[in-house]
What does this fold into?
Amino acid sequence: MPIISISKLSKTYTSGFTALRDIDLAVERGEIFALLGPNGAGKSTLINIVCGIVTASSGTVLVDGHDIGADYRAARRVIGLVPQELTTDAFETVLNTVNFSRGLFGLKPDAGHIERILRALSLWDKRDSRLMTLSGGMKRRVLIAKALSHEPRVLFLDEPTAGVDVELRQDMWRLVRDLRQQGVTVILTTHYIEEAEEMADRIGVIRRGEIILVEEKAALMRKLGRKQLILHLQQPLAAVPPDLADYELALAGEGRELVYTYDTRAERTGITGLLTGLSAAGIRFNDLHTEQSSLEDIFVGLVREERVQA
It folds into this structure.
């Protein structure tokens, strides 16, 4: 049974703006799920509904079997949320604010657990510092510590590394991997394509309030990616011969490389025909290799498709 089950979820605000449309989504236990989408796509609205912060217009959300509406307290107990906004009590110390967050869920103090979290986030040396004295990156770490204080089984990271330094991003990725090994399910929204590519087991893409696809990362790369065949020529070319125009080849490396881009989804890649055409044109090459398009290329392509259809 998935730890999060979302069915026919929609949200329309009083202004008439529809932020989400008939979302169906299941997140499996122990996985890292990345939700990609541009600004305004509905990522934060979806997270806020699952966390009980925003009320849905229609549909159902189950978290570990608990309905987020009918059984809010039990559902929310399972969830840890790291929001985008750096909202903290400026005059409180790091240790006190994290302990307080644990107490909000009715849990007894656990000094050992809190120390482990703070050490994992490089906050232990700052435990007696007031939040107002911390940098933005350190405050972000405190938000993560607060979200983990009550030992949630599901952790939401809403744009967790937006505007933070590389060191914090690496620390967070390491922490997320450790959490998964402990059985925690992690859902993150991000603009950083490399974050999803580095971390996620599965990736969902949302645009205009609709989930347009959900795939395992490798399958997404395979199904939607494009590959490039790069041929290293024996002699440079000044231009692509007219007889090969149908292949839409590109010259690179001062004419010493011929680049052929093909769709991995197509029944035929066209590579055999291209090689035959090159031989007929007297073009010889020393070496060749292929490159898989990045997840960023895929994402940009999906957004471009959406704009064209609009």
In short: The chain has a mean pLDDT of 86.
